[in-house]
Request: fold
Amino acid sequence: MFLKVVPYRQARDHTYYCYLLESYRQEGKVKHRILKNFGLVSERQVAYLKAVYRSRPLPKEDI
Reply:
């Protein structure tokens, strides 16, 4: 599983679409399946989601 972060180009501020994806193989080709769509998230929320799914502690300034 991994997070895919895609910039939302219509907004002037730093917002992103964020997806939780799973990799798998189908007939020898690598495919991705969306497990969860987090929708529009801010830059700070992206850092939080990455930390959660990597099981790493958050930086102290973000708590």
Observations:
- Residues 2-62 form one domain.
